Amino acid sequence: xxxxxxxxxxxxxxxxxxxxAACVALLLSAIFHIFVWHKxxxxxxxxxxxxxxxxxxxxxxxxxFNTPPPRREEKPPTEDRIRPENPKKLADLLGAPAPLxxxxxxxxxxxxxxxxxxxxxxxAPAQGGPLTAPxxxxxxxxxxxxxxxxxxxxxxVAMLPRQLEPVMPRVANAPDWIPPIDLPMGGPGKGVAPASxxxxxxxxxxxxxxxxxxxxxxxxxATPGGxxxxxxxxxxxxxxxxxxxxxxxxxxxVEQYLDLTMYLYRAPDEGGAGYFELQIRRHGEQALPVLPxxxxxxxxxxxxxxxxxxxxxxxxxxxxxEVLGPQDRFQIISFRxxxxxxxxxxxxxxxxxxxxxxxxxxxxxSIGNTDVYNSLAAALRMKRSGDxxxxxxxxxxxxxxxxxxxxxxxIEGFTRQNKGAIPIFTVGSGNKVNHFLxxxxxxxxxxxxxxxxxxxxxxxxxxxxxxxxxxxVLYDLDYRLTGFDASQIFPKSLTPLFxxxxxxxxxxVAPGETRAAIQILGRAGGQHLDMIFPLDVAxxxxxxxxxxxxxxxxKVFFLIGTYIQTQxxxxxxxxxxxxxxxGLIVPYGYGEGVxxx
Length: 597
Known about the structure:
Blueprint: H1 3-8, H2 16-39, H3 90-94, H4 155-158, H5 245-248, E1 252-253, E2 258-266, E3 274-282, E4 294-300, H6 307-323, E5 329-335, E6 339-341, E7 347-348, H7 351-362, H8 372-380, E8 390-395, H9 407-418, E9 424-429, H10 435-443, E10 449-452, H11 458-468, E11 472-482, E12 489-490, E13 497-498, E14 503-509, E15 515-524, E16 527-536, E17 541-542, H12 546-566, H13 570-581
Parallel strand pairs: 1-16, 2-17, 4-5, 4-8, 8-9, 9-10
Antiparallel strand pairs: 2-3, 3-14, 5-6, 5-7, 11-13, 11-15, 12-14, 15-16
């Protein structure tokens, strides 16, 4: 390497004077730091990278309290409320089959007579005397001191001696009225003959509550046995008792216009007990006059009624509207969360009013929520004429979503206010119908329910029902029975009687019951009509086992309706046992919810 090349090479070796300078700098730096540290001790030279810590107050625990969790609002139990639910769970509710229990007699309410002079007062309850009083809790009277606030009798008068009358001996079967003359007593079989106006079409004497045979609405002169008459109480001349039927009752007998057919099924597994079905219908060509009627249509137009189903319901309403005659009146109500009325009041059937009704039906649209109770309340506001029957037709799926939504509350609320004045005929369509509300609403209000699962069949079903209910002849019907157990007769309230629809009554006959009589009263315009029919088990046409099943269903409806009214939990077991004993699959549960699907 040449000399010039050696000069261009960087010499990296430390020089002696550099090492000395570095040592001196380190020493001076140490001396400077020591001086500053002693001169200024508060200077944070040693903790520059440490952040100041926040001071916190000291916490002292004085006491410990146990705070309870927030209390949840307790809701009333709903398992004892009747509602429709999944029928697959019904077998668990019913349990094992049990023998048929008998409903207590005090829970059976027989309809009251229309007035004190009615011939219904002469009818007796079933064998066994009057109904027993319901069980009541023991009365514990309060011990109080009675003080006379106003003195009426002076002490001197009260202390005077009293004259006591002897006790009058009681006479069995003594009459309530004794004639003011002495009647000659006759021997056996020599009493007075029945009066000419005392024999009706039935030929039966119905028993009064005290067990004494007496007069009837139509007038009868023989007992069910056909051997004695009411004259055994008053033997003597006949001219005193020759009174006309019109003198003792304002009811007009109409047995000659009607036929009664009785079918009896003897249950071989019940020791000879029987189940009967009574059908009352027109007799021949001569019929009772047809009454003008008021028809109220109530159509559900909520969102649960699909447009396709609503279109079929509208077609059925059009067909029904065409059946109405010029003597009839009608009104149309559509409802969802609100109610819309076609007219302000009943409208006579004319060409113009029918066009308005058809236009109102065409304007119905499926939208909104469902308020069933509000629509029924609108029906109650309709004025009712006393001389013409009223019929309400409710077309709905029975699934309320607003307002009063409880099925039991809707049924009981409307039934209590209606008091049987407006018969409700319900029509349920589709596969999601609330059977509980549809069935019990009509059963407890003198009506009938029909279920149409196929939507396309709704128009034909409404047309058939319109033909059945087109010609009413009797309404506000009431009945009495003697000879059979009245607690086993259903239904308790009857639908109106129509010329094209029989009036049907079901009952159970004990092995020892063979003869009975039934009296039915009703109204036709401003007149009260009366009919009495004898019931003879021996001459009854044989029936099929389906009669027992239909009777069992009638009793189920009656028991459920009684539970809705009384909320007596003991009835739930009776309902389950009755359904189990007769093999009924009741499509209702025992809570409050949605219907079974």
